[in-house]
Fold each of these.
Amino acid sequence: SPLPSFDLVIFGGSGDLALRKLLPALFHRYRDGQIVDGTRIVGVARDDRSDADYREQVRAALAASMQQDDADNSGGAALAGFLQLLSYQHLDLAGDTGWEEFAQAMRRARRVRVFYLAVAPDLFAQAANRLAAWDLVDADTRVVVEKPIGTDSASADAINDALGRVFAERQIFRIDHYLGKETVQNLTALRFGNALFEPLWRAQHIDHVQITVGETIGVEGRAPYYDRAGALRDMVQNHLLQLLCLVAMEPPTSLDADAIRDEKLKVLRALRPIDAGNAAQLVVRGQYRDGAAEGRAVRGYAEELGRSSRTETFVALKAEVRSWRWAGVPFYLRTGKRLPARVSEIVVTFRPVPHSIFEGVSELAPNRLVLRLQPDESVTMWLMNKVPGPGGLRLRHVPMDLSFAETFGGRQADAYERLLMDVVRGNPMLFMRRDEVEAAWKWIDPIRAAWEVGNDAPKPYTAGTWGPSAAVALIERDGRTWHEDA
Ligand code: BG6
């Protein structure tokens, strides 16, 4: 349903995130009628340019993003209308350039106002202060910040403090775009909309959980950021831990934002600490070398960077949630750049049957529930089935598939579409609360500290493989294997 017109200001309006994700997402919401004419979308950046130039840049970015999405290349009248919502504002976060004019334009309308800080986190505090100084923050104002929120607990605290001096917690939307992905939301629907899963969703019936987020891309143009972050901070601290929380959390009493976030927080706080004492057994870090990815030869990370580096482009680790529900159940997490496939999935492996009556007939593979986030969103339940035919009893592990595309049809909305509209509506359910971010850093910091103490360098892996062999050993040591679709 259409939202009342609002103002959305994107700091970093001509940056990569804005052009590749935010503006295409807004365009789709406009085309579907959810964003109405009269809404204002303002791109803010440091260079001086006209509205017309900016619209042209956005038009080109939309064309590029829609080309990849073949089901969906009708720009047409909607495109013209959308571009009319856009304007550009030259603003200097350090100086006064542009602010007077910008503040006046903003004050012309009293309505929901969203400031999206798609800029480096060291600018968050300054941006917030300037907005307050120009009196642009009222009860209907919201601010959106992207990860990384800092580089460790201390820097995250400083950022959160600075934001907290200008905005109330309910006005701060810390985005983790994985929470906007369809399959991730569907995980909550599956767990709590069906009676089937919940009784089994515990240590007595679940053997282990795997969460894989594999990417084929390298660091692309992001080396200056990425080399300071690394996979642990870029992916595990936020996306993978959030997925783990949604798998492991206790049933919230309602869909209330705090009810859900309270439960996620408990999971983060229950994670068994990993530190210098056990990091070597529980965490594997890797860095890609020359190899092949996306069907061509690619250079190693250090070559791409132009110098050697100890930054990890791959992490695999074994986590444990210390609670009645999960005691003893390993959660194996892995993520990396330049892996063989762009695959993100959550795999829940159930325990084997207690007694096999099929002895000598077939080996029974355990049931697996596979929630695939990417590339094609789907839910698959692996079951043992009889192979049809009169030739006696043979069993096979077969997938029972629920492909979203087939079942529901139509275009799959990008995570940012849902999340941006939630910000405008003021619904923080799919955003991270301050204490969650803090708890996640508190768990991550000692892992990094352990690497430093151990003077530990990432293990090499060939681009286009599933990480260093130690990542395979990490799970095989426990008599288990990483899931691969048959
Ligand atoms: C971002 C990371 O948060 O997520 C990137 O900074 C990563 O390094 C990206 O490529 C992955 O997102 P998605 O939606 O493509 O899986």
Note: The pocket of 6-O-phosphono-beta-D-glucopyranose is lined by residues 177, 215, 234, 344, 374 (CB under 6 Å).
Amino acid sequence: VKLNGGNGAQAYNLDMYQRVQQRVLLEQDLKQALQLNQFSISFQPQMTIATGALYGFEALIRWRHPVRGMVPPDEFIPVLEQSRQIVPLGYWIIEQCMQQCLSLLHSGWHHFRIAINLSAEQFVDPDLIPTLKRLLDKYELQGSYFELELTERTLVQSIETMLTIMPQIKAMGIHFAIDDFGTGYSSLSYLKKMPMDCIKIDKSFLSGMLENAADFQIIASTIAMVQKLQLQVVAEGVETREQLELLRQQGCDIAQGYLIARPVPQAELAGFLEEHFPK
Ligand code: C2E
Ligand code: CA
Ligand code: CA
Ligand code: CA
């Protein structure tokens, strides 16, 4: 639609208007999406670099909009976070992951870990700890099959809460990872204060590591530091053999990325594993 004669300000306003309208529509559609069964979860395999064995998975939400098709999480997660709808959806995600865990155990896989992304809103929700306990109980699962991924943004927002919540979750055996490491307000003091198990190097560093000396140095020194702290280190966004080889040389533990596998829809996971990571 052409509604203005090249007036810049008007074009801008119209654009703004359309974006606001789009967002309102998105918000409305999101309200029913869970009830209408439009969400699903894909699981992206992670590989132990030294052995080539399966290490675990990251659970990634997918939304199939009836008209727009697949909507990327970067588009709708922030909307859900603002309206706090991420909290109930987050519990649904956690329960799906527990069911998937149970199903993997029943099919004979025992050595894996499922990493779940946790938004800040959910991390400070008072129901988080009771819900985790209730669900682990319900499915009779050990917490050690799960890892919660927090971003540096979440960590700075609520450092006090964090220090009371984290130990209680750790007591259930659940692990913690810092996601997108290096992109936020990276403070090494978190690593000392918080009971972290794992650091995930952000994929933006990976994409530059072969050409850009600075990116490579950041990766190399992160790996070295994380190992001195005796934490696990995952490199995300591994797309080429060269990247994987360099990561191996630097002593990185775990790789995740399209080279290893794309995120696999839940219904296809068992078949995928039989084929690519036989027991
Ligand atoms: P993230 O947590 O950093 O997740 C990793 C993203 O990198 C995923 O995008 C994944 O599909 C993508 N990826 C994996 N390997 C490669 C690779 O080799 N190259 C490239 N270019 N990308 C790769 P996705 O699934 O689109 O998710 C985007 C973001 O949305 C996630 O970033 C996370 O912040 C958020 N998100 C996804 N699922 C959930 C969820 O269940 N809960 C919450 N709270 N946030 C989620
Ligand atoms: Ca993540
Ligand atoms: Ca990440
Ligand atoms: Ca991210």
Note: Residues 44, 59-61, 72-74, 77, 93, 117, 119, 179-180, 203, 236-239, 257-258, 263 surround C2E (ligand 1) (CB under 6 Å).
